[in-house]
Amino acid sequence: MKRDLAPEHPFPAPLEDALMVWLHLREGRLAGLSSERLTVAGDSAGGTLAAGLCVALRERGLAQPYLQVLVSPVLSAHQQFAFMREHACAPMLTTQGLMASLAGYVPDEPSQRDPQALALEQEVATGLTPAFVGVAQWDPLCDQGRAYVAM
């Protein structure tokens, strides 16, 4: 029996949900919550959404978060990254597993090239809030995180 483990709704639906929540939080209706110091954070696919949210906000001319915190984010569907080959069989995430997950999130080529889906697809990262990116040494995603920081 085949089970689909990908999101029930691929890109752009998860980003639209994240954007809706972000805009609601920015309204400042929650007592004690500073809308000026809101930070986005995520691990793996959550990091993908956090980075994509920053790109989407920039594209719409809206205020950026105070900071982005990304832990092992998936930022590209391209397989040319050295760590994807060198650590293809990493214990926490294999390159094959990564590519299967990406096929569920961005199932078509136009989505795979959209910087709001995968933030390394943007030509320049100007106008984005500063990012803390945590990566692991033996992780197929390590050089994607490093490339994002270097943009």
Characterization of this structure:
It is a single chain. About 40% of the residues lie in helices and about 10% in strands. The model has no long low-confidence stretch (mean pLDDT about 90). With about 150 residues, it is mostly helical. Strands 1-2-3 form a 3-stranded parallel beta sheet, covered by helices on one side. The longest helix is centred in the middle third of the chain and has 15 residues, at about 45-60. The protein has helices spanning about 15-25, 45-60, 80-85, 95-105, 110, 140-150, and strands spanning about 40-45, 65-70, 130-135. It has a single domain (about 15-20, about 35-150), classed as Rossmann fold. Helix 1 packs across helix 2. Strand 1, helix 2 (about 45-60) and strand 2 (about 65-70) form a beta-alpha-beta unit.
Q: Beta-strand percentage?
A: 5-15%
Outline type: globular
As laid out across the biggest beta sheet, the strand order is 1-2-3
Quickly give the CATH architecture. Answer: 3-Layer(aba) Sandwich
The unreliable regions are none
Give the beta-strand count: 3
**Topology order in helix (H) and strand (E) letters:** HEHEHHHEH
> Tell me, what is the CATH class?
Alpha Beta
What is the CATH homology-level superfamily? Alpha/Beta hydrolase fold, catalytic domain
* Largest sheet geometry: 3 strands, parallel
Output the radius of gyration. Answer: 15 Å
- The name of the CATH topology is Rossmann fold
Residue-averaged pLDDT: 92
The helicity comes to 25-40%
Q: State the separation between the terminal residues, measured CA to CA.
A: 43 Å
Count the helices. How many?
Answer: 6
Number of domains: 1
- Backbone structural class: mainly alpha
